[in-house]
UniProtKB/TrEMBL annotation:
<keyword id="KW-1003">Cell membrane</keyword>
<dbReference type="InterPro" id="IPR003439">
    <property type="entry name" value="ABC_transporter-like_ATP-bd"/>
</dbReference>
<keyword id="KW-1278">Translocase</keyword>
<feature type="transmembrane region" description="Helical">
    <location>
        <begin position="526"/>
        <end position="546"/>
    </location>
</feature>
<dbReference type="Pfam" id="PF02361">
    <property type="entry name" value="CbiQ"/>
</dbReference>
<comment type="similarity">
    <text>Belongs to the ABC transporter superfamily.</text>
</comment>
<keyword id="KW-0067">ATP-binding</keyword>
<dbReference type="InterPro" id="IPR027417">
    <property type="entry name" value="P-loop_NTPase"/>
</dbReference>
<keyword id="KW-0547">Nucleotide-binding</keyword>
<dbReference type="InterPro" id="IPR017871">
    <property type="entry name" value="ABC_transporter-like_CS"/>
</dbReference>
<keyword id="KW-0472">Membrane</keyword>
<dbReference type="InterPro" id="IPR003593">
    <property type="entry name" value="AAA+_ATPase"/>
</dbReference>
<keyword id="KW-0378">Hydrolase</keyword>
<dbReference type="InterPro" id="IPR015856">
    <property type="entry name" value="ABC_transpr_CbiO/EcfA_su"/>
</dbReference>
<dbReference type="GO" id="GO:0005524">
    <property type="term" value="F:ATP binding"/>
</dbReference>
<dbReference type="Pfam" id="PF00005">
    <property type="entry name" value="ABC_tran"/>
</dbReference>
<feature type="compositionally biased region" description="Basic and acidic residues">
    <location>
        <begin position="315"/>
        <end position="328"/>
    </location>
</feature>
Protein backbone atom coordinates (compact mmCIF):
# COMPACT_ATOMS: atom_id res chain seq x y z
CA UNK A 1 0.00 0.00 0.00
CA UNK A 2 1.26 3.43 -0.91
CA UNK A 3 0.42 6.22 1.50
CA UNK A 4 0.63 9.98 0.98
CA UNK A 5 -0.13 12.96 3.17
CA UNK A 6 -0.77 16.47 1.93
CA UNK A 7 -0.21 19.46 4.24
CA UNK A 8 -1.30 17.58 7.33
CA UNK A 9 -1.98 19.59 10.50
CA UNK A 10 -3.17 18.49 13.92
CA UNK A 11 -3.79 20.79 16.89
CA UNK A 12 -4.42 19.88 20.52
CA UNK A 13 -6.76 21.74 22.85
CA UNK A 14 -6.09 25.41 22.97
CA UNK A 15 -4.78 25.48 19.41
CA UNK A 16 -1.30 24.13 20.23
CA UNK A 17 -0.02 22.42 17.06
CA UNK A 18 1.33 18.89 17.40
CA UNK A 19 1.81 18.19 13.69
CA UNK A 20 2.54 20.98 11.20
CA UNK A 21 2.39 20.85 7.41
CA UNK A 22 3.39 17.18 6.96
CA UNK A 23 3.61 16.05 3.33
CA UNK A 24 4.89 12.50 2.78
CA UNK A 25 5.02 9.88 0.07
CA UNK A 26 5.73 6.34 1.29
CA UNK A 27 5.97 3.75 -1.51
CA UNK A 28 4.53 0.26 -1.37
CA UNK A 29 6.62 -2.47 0.25
CA UNK A 30 9.07 -0.16 2.00
CA UNK A 31 10.20 0.07 5.61
CA UNK A 32 10.11 3.64 6.91
CA UNK A 33 11.58 4.62 10.28
CA UNK A 34 9.94 7.57 12.04
CA UNK A 35 12.02 9.01 14.87
CA UNK A 36 12.12 12.06 17.08
CA UNK A 37 12.43 13.07 20.71
CA UNK A 38 9.44 12.91 23.03
CA UNK A 39 7.03 15.69 22.14
CA UNK A 40 8.20 15.96 18.54
CA UNK A 41 4.81 14.80 17.16
CA UNK A 42 5.94 11.29 16.23
CA UNK A 43 3.17 9.37 18.06
CA UNK A 44 0.52 11.84 16.90
CA UNK A 45 1.54 11.38 13.27
CA UNK A 46 1.40 7.59 13.63
CA UNK A 47 -2.15 7.79 14.97
CA UNK A 48 -3.18 10.08 12.14
CA UNK A 49 -1.79 7.63 9.59
CA UNK A 50 -3.69 4.79 11.29
CA UNK A 51 -6.94 6.83 11.23
CA UNK A 52 -7.12 6.75 15.03
CA UNK A 53 -7.16 10.57 15.12
CA UNK A 54 -8.61 13.09 12.71
CA UNK A 55 -6.38 15.83 11.27
CA UNK A 56 -7.27 19.46 11.83
CA UNK A 57 -6.57 20.09 8.16
CA UNK A 58 -4.94 18.36 5.21
CA UNK A 59 -5.64 14.86 3.95
CA UNK A 60 -4.28 11.32 3.94
CA UNK A 61 -4.36 9.35 0.70
CA UNK A 62 -4.00 5.58 0.40
CA UNK A 63 -3.22 3.43 -2.64
CA UNK A 64 -4.25 5.22 -5.85
CA UNK A 65 -5.17 8.59 -4.35
CA UNK A 66 -8.40 7.57 -2.67
CA UNK A 67 -9.16 9.80 0.25
CA UNK A 68 -9.14 8.03 3.59
CA UNK A 69 -12.47 6.65 4.81
CA UNK A 70 -13.46 3.81 7.13
CA UNK A 71 -13.26 1.20 4.37
CA UNK A 72 -9.83 2.30 3.21
CA UNK A 73 -8.49 2.87 6.73
CA UNK A 74 -9.33 -0.73 7.67
CA UNK A 75 -6.37 -1.72 5.49
CA UNK A 76 -4.11 -0.08 8.11
CA UNK A 77 -3.16 -1.89 11.33
CA UNK A 78 -1.25 -0.37 14.23
CA UNK A 79 0.55 -2.04 17.14
CA UNK A 80 1.25 0.16 20.15
CA UNK A 81 4.24 0.26 22.46
CA UNK A 82 2.61 -1.43 25.45
CA UNK A 83 1.19 -4.86 24.57
CA UNK A 84 -0.76 -5.08 27.82
CA UNK A 85 -3.08 -2.31 26.58
CA UNK A 86 -3.93 -4.19 23.37
CA UNK A 87 -5.03 -7.61 24.63
CA UNK A 88 -8.70 -8.18 25.38
CA UNK A 89 -9.83 -11.83 25.14
CA UNK A 90 -9.27 -14.85 27.36
CA UNK A 91 -7.26 -16.80 24.78
CA UNK A 92 -4.82 -15.92 22.04
CA UNK A 93 -7.20 -17.37 19.43
CA UNK A 94 -10.14 -15.21 20.54
CA UNK A 95 -7.98 -12.11 20.83
CA UNK A 96 -6.77 -12.37 17.22
CA UNK A 97 -10.26 -13.41 16.10
CA UNK A 98 -11.74 -10.06 17.18
CA UNK A 99 -10.42 -8.18 14.17
CA UNK A 100 -11.63 -10.90 11.79
CA UNK A 101 -15.13 -10.80 13.31
CA UNK A 102 -15.22 -7.03 12.90
CA UNK A 103 -14.49 -7.44 9.20
CA UNK A 104 -17.09 -10.15 8.67
CA UNK A 105 -14.71 -13.06 8.00
CA UNK A 106 -16.59 -16.36 8.12
CA UNK A 107 -15.98 -18.63 11.09
CA UNK A 108 -14.74 -21.46 8.87
CA UNK A 109 -11.81 -19.38 7.61
CA UNK A 110 -10.78 -17.78 10.89
CA UNK A 111 -8.73 -20.64 12.34
CA UNK A 112 -6.62 -20.96 9.22
CA UNK A 113 -6.02 -17.20 9.08
CA UNK A 114 -5.12 -17.03 12.80
CA UNK A 115 -2.69 -19.95 12.47
CA UNK A 116 -1.03 -18.26 9.50
CA UNK A 117 -0.72 -14.94 11.34
CA UNK A 118 0.85 -16.62 14.36
CA UNK A 119 3.27 -18.50 12.11
CA UNK A 120 4.45 -15.21 10.60
CA UNK A 121 5.38 -14.00 14.07
CA UNK A 122 7.13 -17.24 15.02
CA UNK A 123 4.42 -18.61 17.34
CA UNK A 124 2.96 -22.10 16.88
CA UNK A 125 -0.84 -22.19 16.80
CA UNK A 126 -1.10 -25.49 18.69
CA UNK A 127 1.06 -24.15 21.51
CA UNK A 128 -0.29 -20.62 21.91
CA UNK A 129 -3.89 -20.51 20.60
CA UNK A 130 -5.48 -21.74 23.83
CA UNK A 131 -3.25 -19.81 26.23
CA UNK A 132 -4.21 -16.59 27.99
CA UNK A 133 -2.47 -13.62 26.34
CA UNK A 134 -2.19 -11.92 29.73
CA UNK A 135 0.14 -14.65 31.03
CA UNK A 136 2.66 -14.54 28.19
CA UNK A 137 6.10 -12.95 28.33
CA UNK A 138 6.64 -9.43 27.06
CA UNK A 139 8.09 -10.60 23.75
CA UNK A 140 5.29 -13.15 23.24
CA UNK A 141 2.64 -10.51 23.99
CA UNK A 142 4.23 -8.23 21.40
CA UNK A 143 4.14 -11.04 18.82
CA UNK A 144 0.49 -11.82 19.57
CA UNK A 145 -0.38 -8.15 19.04
CA UNK A 146 1.46 -8.16 15.71
CA UNK A 147 -0.28 -11.40 14.75
CA UNK A 148 -3.63 -9.77 15.47
CA UNK A 149 -2.66 -6.88 13.23
CA UNK A 150 -1.48 -9.18 10.44
CA UNK A 151 -4.55 -11.44 10.57
CA UNK A 152 -6.70 -8.79 8.89
CA UNK A 153 -4.20 -8.69 6.00
CA UNK A 154 -3.41 -4.97 6.11
CA UNK A 155 -1.64 -3.10 3.36
CA UNK A 156 0.16 -0.93 5.93
CA UNK A 157 1.46 -2.02 9.33
CA UNK A 158 2.46 0.66 11.86
CA UNK A 159 4.62 -0.32 14.85
CA UNK A 160 5.19 2.10 17.72
CA UNK A 161 8.42 1.35 19.64
CA UNK A 162 8.32 -2.40 18.84
CA UNK A 163 11.55 -3.23 20.71
CA UNK A 164 10.80 -1.20 23.86
CA UNK A 165 11.12 -3.33 26.99
CA UNK A 166 12.46 -6.39 25.17
CA UNK A 167 15.69 -8.18 26.02
CA UNK A 168 18.39 -8.22 23.30
CA UNK A 169 17.48 -11.70 22.09
CA UNK A 170 13.76 -10.90 21.77
CA UNK A 171 14.54 -7.56 20.11
CA UNK A 172 16.78 -9.26 17.53
CA UNK A 173 14.09 -11.87 16.80
CA UNK A 174 11.51 -9.12 16.31
CA UNK A 175 13.87 -7.23 14.00
CA UNK A 176 14.28 -10.34 11.84
CA UNK A 177 10.52 -10.79 11.73
CA UNK A 178 10.06 -7.17 10.59
CA UNK A 179 12.53 -7.73 7.76
CA UNK A 180 10.63 -10.84 6.65
CA UNK A 181 7.37 -8.88 6.61
CA UNK A 182 8.97 -6.18 4.49
CA UNK A 183 10.29 -8.79 2.03
CA UNK A 184 6.73 -10.14 1.66
CA UNK A 185 5.65 -6.79 0.16
CA UNK A 186 4.02 -5.29 3.27
CA UNK A 187 4.49 -1.55 3.80
CA UNK A 188 5.81 -0.80 7.29
CA UNK A 189 6.18 2.40 9.30
CA UNK A 190 8.11 2.06 12.55
CA UNK A 191 8.21 4.77 15.18
CA UNK A 192 11.24 4.15 17.36
CA UNK A 193 14.15 5.49 19.38
CA UNK A 194 16.14 2.32 18.68
CA UNK A 195 18.14 3.73 15.79
CA UNK A 196 20.95 1.16 16.17
CA UNK A 197 18.54 -1.64 15.24
CA UNK A 198 16.32 -0.06 12.61
CA UNK A 199 18.42 2.48 10.70
CA UNK A 200 20.50 -0.22 8.95
CA UNK A 201 17.36 -1.92 7.54
CA UNK A 202 15.32 1.21 6.74
CA UNK A 203 14.49 2.23 3.18
CA UNK A 204 13.63 5.73 4.36
CA UNK A 205 14.01 7.69 7.59
CA UNK A 206 11.78 10.56 8.71
CA UNK A 207 13.08 12.70 11.58
CA UNK A 208 10.53 14.84 13.44
CA UNK A 209 11.33 18.06 15.26
CA UNK A 210 8.75 20.25 17.01
CA UNK A 211 5.88 18.77 14.99
CA UNK A 212 7.50 19.26 11.58
CA UNK A 213 9.69 17.14 9.32
CA UNK A 214 13.36 17.82 10.05
CA UNK A 215 14.73 15.19 7.63
CA UNK A 216 13.16 12.87 5.06
CA UNK A 217 15.48 10.63 3.10
CA UNK A 218 17.79 7.60 3.15
CA UNK A 219 19.52 6.38 6.31
CA UNK A 220 23.16 6.64 5.12
CA UNK A 221 22.91 10.44 4.97
CA UNK A 222 22.07 10.50 8.69
CA UNK A 223 25.06 8.39 9.67
CA UNK A 224 27.39 10.41 7.41
CA UNK A 225 26.29 13.77 8.87
CA UNK A 226 25.86 13.57 12.67
CA UNK A 227 24.46 17.08 12.76
CA UNK A 228 21.18 15.99 11.17
CA UNK A 229 20.29 13.84 14.17
CA UNK A 230 21.94 16.10 16.74
CA UNK A 231 19.90 19.11 15.59
CA UNK A 232 16.75 17.10 16.31
CA UNK A 233 17.97 16.12 19.78
CA UNK A 234 18.78 12.53 18.78
CA UNK A 235 21.98 10.55 19.34
CA UNK A 236 23.53 8.87 16.31
CA UNK A 237 23.77 5.06 16.35
CA UNK A 238 26.77 3.63 18.17
CA UNK A 239 28.19 2.04 15.01
CA UNK A 240 28.09 5.44 13.26
CA UNK A 241 29.83 7.27 16.13
CA UNK A 242 32.55 4.61 16.41
CA UNK A 243 32.94 4.44 12.65
CA UNK A 244 33.39 8.21 12.39
CA UNK A 245 36.19 8.13 14.96
CA UNK A 246 37.78 5.20 13.15
CA UNK A 247 37.74 7.26 9.95
CA UNK A 248 39.38 10.17 11.76
CA UNK A 249 42.17 7.85 12.95
CA UNK A 250 42.66 6.33 9.52
CA UNK A 251 41.29 2.91 10.44
CA UNK A 252 38.35 3.09 8.01
CA UNK A 253 37.84 4.78 4.69
CA UNK A 254 34.15 5.65 5.19
CA UNK A 255 31.55 5.66 7.96
CA UNK A 256 29.86 2.21 8.04
CA UNK A 257 26.13 1.82 7.43
CA UNK A 258 25.69 -0.87 10.10
CA UNK A 259 27.46 -2.67 12.90
CA UNK A 260 28.54 -5.58 10.69
CA UNK A 261 30.42 -3.25 8.32
CA UNK A 262 32.12 -1.61 11.29
CA UNK A 263 33.34 -4.94 12.68
CA UNK A 264 34.56 -6.15 9.29
CA UNK A 265 36.51 -2.94 8.78
CA UNK A 266 38.08 -3.02 12.23
CA UNK A 267 39.19 -6.64 11.78
CA UNK A 268 41.79 -5.36 9.31
CA UNK A 269 43.26 -3.12 12.03
CA UNK A 270 43.44 -5.14 15.28
CA UNK A 271 43.86 -2.95 18.33
CA UNK A 272 46.80 -3.54 20.73
CA UNK A 273 45.99 -5.19 24.04
CA UNK A 274 45.97 -2.72 26.94
CA UNK A 275 48.82 -3.00 29.43
CA UNK A 276 47.56 -3.98 32.86
CA UNK A 277 50.85 -3.12 34.61
CA UNK A 278 52.76 -0.05 33.46
CA UNK A 279 55.80 -1.00 35.58
CA UNK A 280 58.10 -3.77 34.28
CA UNK A 281 58.81 -6.69 36.53
CA UNK A 282 61.70 -6.00 38.88
CA UNK A 283 61.26 -2.25 38.96
CA UNK A 284 62.11 -1.10 42.44
CA UNK A 285 60.06 1.05 44.74
CA UNK A 286 62.60 3.86 44.52
CA UNK A 287 62.28 4.02 40.75
CA UNK A 288 58.48 4.08 40.96
CA UNK A 289 58.47 6.83 43.57
CA UNK A 290 60.96 8.85 41.51
CA UNK A 291 58.78 8.56 38.44
CA UNK A 292 55.76 9.74 40.41
CA UNK A 293 57.60 12.64 42.04
CA UNK A 294 56.19 16.21 41.70
CA UNK A 295 58.92 17.08 39.23
CA UNK A 296 57.77 14.42 36.79
CA UNK A 297 54.76 16.01 35.07
CA UNK A 298 54.08 13.14 32.67
CA UNK A 299 53.25 10.48 35.24
CA UNK A 300 50.07 10.26 37.31
CA UNK A 301 48.55 7.59 39.45
CA UNK A 302 45.47 5.74 38.29
CA UNK A 303 43.44 7.49 40.98
CA UNK A 304 44.58 10.90 39.69
CA UNK A 305 43.63 9.91 36.17
CA UNK A 306 40.18 8.86 37.36
CA UNK A 307 39.74 12.02 39.36
CA UNK A 308 40.60 14.29 36.46
CA UNK A 309 38.70 12.25 33.87
CA UNK A 310 35.78 14.01 32.24
CA UNK A 311 33.72 13.42 29.11
CA UNK A 312 33.33 16.71 27.23
CA UNK A 313 33.13 18.48 30.56
CA UNK A 314 29.94 16.67 31.62
CA UNK A 315 31.37 14.82 34.63
CA UNK A 316 34.13 15.56 37.08
CA UNK A 317 35.00 14.01 40.36
CA UNK A 318 34.20 15.88 43.57
CA UNK A 319 37.38 16.05 45.68
CA UNK A 320 35.71 17.78 48.61
CA UNK A 321 35.53 15.85 51.90
CA UNK A 322 32.56 13.56 52.40
CA UNK A 323 31.30 15.66 55.32
CA UNK A 324 31.13 18.85 53.25
CA UNK A 325 29.32 17.05 50.44
CA UNK A 326 26.79 15.68 52.94
CA UNK A 327 26.25 19.16 54.35
CA UNK A 328 25.54 20.54 50.88
CA UNK A 329 22.97 17.81 50.20
CA UNK A 330 21.28 18.42 53.55
CA UNK A 331 21.21 22.15 52.84
CA UNK A 332 19.43 21.52 49.54
CA UNK A 333 16.69 19.33 51.05
CA UNK A 334 16.38 21.08 54.43
CA UNK A 335 12.78 22.19 55.12
CA UNK A 336 12.35 25.90 54.58
CA UNK A 337 15.25 26.15 52.21
CA UNK A 338 14.48 29.15 49.94
CA UNK A 339 16.20 27.44 46.99
CA UNK A 340 13.78 24.55 47.31
CA UNK A 341 10.79 26.88 47.55
CA UNK A 342 11.92 28.76 44.45
CA UNK A 343 11.83 25.48 42.51
CA UNK A 344 8.15 24.99 43.35
CA UNK A 345 6.46 28.21 42.18
CA UNK A 346 2.82 28.77 42.95
CA UNK A 347 0.21 28.45 40.26
CA UNK A 348 -1.55 31.61 39.12
CA UNK A 349 -4.82 32.77 40.65
CA UNK A 350 -6.70 30.65 43.14
CA UNK A 351 -4.86 27.54 41.89
CA UNK A 352 -1.84 28.73 43.87
CA UNK A 353 -3.69 28.68 47.20
CA UNK A 354 -2.25 26.68 50.04
CA UNK A 355 -3.47 23.06 49.68
CA UNK A 356 -5.01 23.26 53.15
CA UNK A 357 -7.41 25.91 51.91
CA UNK A 358 -8.30 23.68 48.95
CA UNK A 359 -8.85 20.71 51.26
CA UNK A 360 -11.20 22.87 53.30
CA UNK A 361 -13.20 23.69 50.19
CA UNK A 362 -13.22 20.04 49.10
CA UNK A 363 -14.47 18.73 52.45
CA UNK A 364 -17.07 21.45 53.09
CA UNK A 365 -18.28 21.31 49.50
CA UNK A 366 -18.77 17.55 49.71
CA UNK A 367 -20.68 17.77 52.98
CA UNK A 368 -22.96 20.54 51.69
CA UNK A 369 -23.59 18.67 48.43
CA UNK A 370 -24.60 15.51 50.28
CA UNK A 371 -27.24 17.54 52.13
CA UNK A 372 -28.85 19.00 49.00
CA UNK A 373 -32.17 17.44 48.03
CA UNK A 374 -33.65 20.13 45.79
CA UNK A 375 -32.77 21.44 42.36
CA UNK A 376 -32.03 25.11 43.08
CA UNK A 377 -28.94 24.68 45.34
CA UNK A 378 -27.60 22.00 43.00
CA UNK A 379 -27.85 24.37 40.04
CA UNK A 380 -26.14 27.14 42.03
CA UNK A 381 -23.32 24.73 42.91
CA UNK A 382 -23.02 23.64 39.27
CA UNK A 383 -22.66 27.28 38.19
CA UNK A 384 -20.04 27.90 40.88
CA UNK A 385 -17.97 24.84 39.83
CA UNK A 386 -18.25 25.82 36.16
CA UNK A 387 -16.95 29.31 36.98
CA UNK A 388 -14.02 27.88 38.95
CA UNK A 389 -13.17 25.50 36.10
CA UNK A 390 -13.26 28.37 33.60
CA UNK A 391 -11.00 30.51 35.79
CA UNK A 392 -8.57 27.58 36.05
CA UNK A 393 -8.55 27.39 32.24
CA UNK A 394 -9.69 23.78 32.16
CA UNK A 395 -10.95 23.22 28.62
CA UNK A 396 -14.43 21.83 28.09
CA UNK A 397 -12.93 19.04 25.98
CA UNK A 398 -10.75 17.91 28.86
CA UNK A 399 -13.76 18.00 31.19
CA UNK A 400 -15.93 16.13 28.69
CA UNK A 401 -13.34 13.38 28.28
CA UNK A 402 -13.24 13.00 32.05
CA UNK A 403 -17.01 12.78 32.50
CA UNK A 404 -17.80 10.74 29.38
CA UNK A 405 -17.34 7.32 31.06
CA UNK A 406 -19.81 8.34 33.80
CA UNK A 407 -22.55 9.79 31.60
CA UNK A 408 -24.05 6.55 30.25
CA UNK A 409 -23.89 4.92 33.68
CA UNK A 410 -25.66 7.81 35.39
CA UNK A 411 -28.21 8.05 32.57
CA UNK A 412 -29.02 4.39 33.09
CA UNK A 413 -29.34 4.90 36.86
CA UNK A 414 -31.58 7.92 36.29
CA UNK A 415 -33.98 5.96 34.06
CA UNK A 416 -33.87 3.02 36.45
CA UNK A 417 -34.90 5.25 39.36
CA UNK A 418 -38.00 6.31 37.45
CA UNK A 419 -39.32 2.77 36.83
CA UNK A 420 -42.44 1.84 38.71
CA UNK A 421 -45.03 -0.97 38.67
CA UNK A 422 -47.99 1.26 39.46
CA UNK A 423 -47.33 4.77 38.14
CA UNK A 424 -49.79 5.91 35.44
CA UNK A 425 -47.47 8.62 34.04
CA UNK A 426 -45.69 6.86 31.16
CA UNK A 427 -46.74 3.27 30.43
CA UNK A 428 -44.05 0.88 29.19
CA UNK A 429 -45.86 -2.44 29.14
CA UNK A 430 -45.96 -3.97 32.62
CA UNK A 431 -43.64 -1.25 33.86
CA UNK A 432 -44.07 2.51 33.74
CA UNK A 433 -42.02 5.64 34.29
CA UNK A 434 -42.90 7.72 37.28
CA UNK A 435 -42.49 11.48 36.93
CA UNK A 436 -41.78 11.83 40.65
CA UNK A 437 -39.24 9.03 40.43
CA UNK A 438 -37.50 10.67 37.49
CA UNK A 439 -37.28 13.97 39.38
CA UNK A 440 -35.98 12.29 42.53
CA UNK A 441 -33.50 10.17 40.53
CA UNK A 442 -32.36 13.18 38.51
CA UNK A 443 -31.54 15.10 41.68
CA UNK A 444 -29.55 12.16 43.06
CA UNK A 445 -27.65 11.71 39.80
CA UNK A 446 -26.89 15.44 39.58
CA UNK A 447 -25.66 15.45 43.17
CA UNK A 448 -23.21 12.63 42.53
CA UNK A 449 -22.03 14.20 39.28
CA UNK A 450 -21.29 17.42 41.15
CA UNK A 451 -19.34 15.46 43.77
CA UNK A 452 -17.26 13.96 40.97
CA UNK A 453 -16.85 17.43 39.42
CA UNK A 454 -15.61 18.80 42.74
CA UNK A 455 -12.99 16.05 42.96
CA UNK A 456 -12.01 16.59 39.33
CA UNK A 457 -11.54 20.33 39.91
CA UNK A 458 -9.50 19.62 43.04
CA UNK A 459 -7.10 17.13 41.41
CA UNK A 460 -6.76 19.16 38.20
CA UNK A 461 -5.56 22.23 40.10
CA UNK A 462 -3.47 20.55 42.82
CA UNK A 463 -0.38 18.45 42.16
CA UNK A 464 0.50 15.36 44.14
CA UNK A 465 3.01 16.74 46.64
CA UNK A 466 0.91 19.73 47.86
CA UNK A 467 -2.17 17.52 47.97
CA UNK A 468 -0.50 15.01 50.25
CA UNK A 469 1.25 17.55 52.49
CA UNK A 470 -2.01 19.42 53.07
CA UNK A 471 -3.86 16.23 53.98
CA UNK A 472 -1.11 15.01 56.30
CA UNK A 473 -1.09 18.37 58.09
CA UNK A 474 -4.84 18.17 58.64
CA UNK A 475 -4.86 14.68 60.13
CA UNK A 476 -1.64 15.10 62.13
CA UNK A 477 -3.53 15.41 65.48
CA UNK A 478 -4.65 11.79 65.06
CA UNK A 479 -1.08 10.68 65.76
CA UNK A 480 -1.73 11.26 69.47
CA UNK A 481 -4.26 8.41 69.24
CA UNK A 482 -1.66 6.06 67.78
CA UNK A 483 -3.05 6.29 64.24
CA UNK A 484 -0.46 6.14 61.47
CA UNK A 485 -1.51 9.19 59.52
CA UNK A 486 1.20 8.70 56.87
CA UNK A 487 -0.60 5.57 55.66
CA UNK A 488 -3.84 7.53 55.32
CA UNK A 489 -2.33 10.45 53.45
CA UNK A 490 -0.44 8.13 51.10
CA UNK A 491 -3.57 6.08 50.36
CA UNK A 492 -5.77 9.13 49.71
CA UNK A 493 -3.24 10.96 47.53
CA UNK A 494 -2.53 7.84 45.45
CA UNK A 495 -6.26 7.20 45.05
CA UNK A 496 -6.98 10.74 43.89
CA UNK A 497 -4.12 10.61 41.40
CA UNK A 498 -5.13 7.13 40.27
CA UNK A 499 -8.23 8.47 38.53
CA UNK A 500 -6.34 10.36 35.76
CA UNK A 501 -4.12 7.30 35.27
CA UNK A 502 -7.17 5.05 34.81
CA UNK A 503 -8.67 7.51 32.32
CA UNK A 504 -5.41 7.48 30.38
CA UNK A 505 -5.43 3.68 30.24
CA UNK A 506 -9.05 3.76 29.09
CA UNK A 507 -8.04 6.01 26.21
CA UNK A 508 -5.21 3.63 25.27
CA UNK A 509 -7.54 0.63 25.31
CA UNK A 510 -10.04 2.49 23.13
CA UNK A 511 -7.31 3.29 20.62
CA UNK A 512 -6.21 -0.33 20.58
CA UNK A 513 -9.78 -1.49 19.93
CA UNK A 514 -10.05 1.01 17.12
CA UNK A 515 -6.83 -0.27 15.56
CA UNK A 516 -8.15 -3.85 15.61
CA UNK A 517 -11.70 -3.26 14.40
CA UNK A 518 -14.14 -0.52 13.50
CA UNK A 519 -13.03 3.04 14.19
CA UNK A 520 -15.86 3.79 16.62
CA UNK A 521 -16.68 7.47 17.09
CA UNK A 522 -18.51 9.38 19.81
CA UNK A 523 -21.01 7.44 21.94
CA UNK A 524 -20.33 4.24 19.96
CA UNK A 525 -17.00 3.98 21.75
CA UNK A 526 -18.91 3.35 24.98
CA UNK A 527 -21.35 0.72 23.74
CA UNK A 528 -21.98 -2.30 26.03
CA UNK A 529 -19.83 -4.45 23.79
CA UNK A 530 -16.92 -2.01 23.87
CA UNK A 531 -17.15 -1.71 27.66
CA UNK A 532 -17.27 -5.52 28.05
CA UNK A 533 -14.08 -5.85 26.00
CA UNK A 534 -12.27 -3.18 28.01
CA UNK A 535 -13.25 -4.05 31.57
CA UNK A 536 -11.04 -7.16 32.00
CA UNK A 537 -7.76 -5.69 30.67
CA UNK A 538 -8.46 -2.49 32.63
CA UNK A 539 -8.82 -4.47 35.87
CA UNK A 540 -5.59 -6.33 35.09
CA UNK A 541 -3.79 -3.03 34.51
CA UNK A 542 -5.14 -1.57 37.76
CA UNK A 543 -4.08 -4.64 39.76
CA UNK A 544 -0.67 -4.59 38.11
CA UNK A 545 -0.21 -0.92 38.93
CA UNK A 546 -1.26 -1.55 42.54
CA UNK A 547 1.33 -4.30 42.81
CA UNK A 548 4.01 -2.02 41.33
CA UNK A 549 3.12 0.75 43.78
CA UNK A 550 3.34 -1.67 46.72
CA UNK A 551 6.72 -2.89 45.49
CA UNK A 552 7.96 0.67 45.04
CA UNK A 553 6.89 1.66 48.55
CA UNK A 554 8.58 -1.42 50.01
CA UNK A 555 11.78 -0.94 47.99
CA UNK A 556 12.14 2.62 49.29
CA UNK A 557 12.10 1.43 52.86
CA UNK A 558 8.83 3.19 53.66
CA UNK A 559 8.32 3.27 57.42
CA UNK A 560 5.07 4.96 58.53
CA UNK A 561 6.40 5.34 62.07
CA UNK A 562 9.27 7.60 61.04
CA UNK A 563 9.18 11.27 60.20
CA UNK A 564 10.09 12.22 56.64
CA UNK A 565 11.47 15.31 54.94
CA UNK A 566 8.63 17.02 53.05
CA UNK A 567 9.16 17.68 49.37
CA UNK A 568 6.78 20.65 49.44
CA UNK A 569 6.71 23.39 52.02
CA UNK A 570 3.27 24.55 53.18
CA UNK A 571 3.06 28.34 53.27
CA UNK A 572 -0.07 30.03 54.60
CA UNK A 573 -0.53 33.65 53.56
CA UNK A 574 -3.10 36.38 53.96
CA UNK A 575 -4.60 35.38 50.61
CA UNK A 576 -5.19 31.88 51.96
CA UNK A 577 -6.94 33.30 55.01
CA UNK A 578 -9.27 35.36 52.82
CA UNK A 579 -9.91 32.33 50.62
CA UNK A 580 -10.76 30.17 53.67
CA UNK A 581 -13.23 32.81 54.91
CA UNK A 582 -14.77 32.96 51.44
CA UNK A 583 -15.13 29.16 51.36
CA UNK A 584 -16.87 29.19 54.74
CA UNK A 585 -19.23 31.96 53.57
CA UNK A 586 -20.14 30.22 50.32
CA UNK A 587 -20.66 26.88 52.07
CA UNK A 588 -22.94 28.55 54.63
CA UNK A 589 -24.93 30.28 51.89
CA UNK A 590 -25.41 27.05 49.91
CA UNK A 591 -26.40 25.20 53.07
CA UNK A 592 -28.96 27.91 53.88
CA UNK A 593 -30.40 27.79 50.35
CA UNK A 594 -30.64 24.00 50.60
CA UNK A 595 -32.55 24.26 53.89
CA UNK A 596 -35.13 26.81 52.72
CA UNK A 597 -35.75 25.41 49.21
Amino acid sequence: MRIRTEHLFFCYEGGRPAVQDISLDIPTGTLTVLCGVNGSGKSTLLRLLADLAQPSSGQILYDHGKKTDYKTAEAVSMVFQQPETQLFAGTVHKDIEYGLMERGVSKEKRTEIIAGALAKTGLAYDEFAGRSPFLLSGGEKRRVCIAGALAVQPGLLILDEPTAGLDPQAAQALLEMVQQLRSSGLTLIIGTHDLDSFLPVADKVIVMKQGAIHYNGPAPALTADPGLLADAGLTPPVYASMGRRAVQHGLLEAVPDNLEELLIGLEKHPLPMPQTDRWPAGTGASARSSAMSPGNQNTKTSEQHSAEYSLKGTWKRDHSPRSSRTERVQTIIRPGNPRLEQNTPRRPGWQGLDPRAKWLGMILGSLVLLGMNTLLPLLLTAGLLAGLAASARISWRRAFRFFRPFLLMFLFLWLLSGLSWSSPDFALGPLSLSYAGLVRGGINVLRFLLLIALGFLFTETTTGAPLREGLEWGIAPLRTLGIRTRNWSLAVSVTLQFVPWILGKLAQLQLALGSRGRRARGVARWSPRQIALIIVPLLILVLGMGDELATAVESRGYDPAKQRTPVYQLRWSRRDTLAALGILAVAAMLWWVARIS
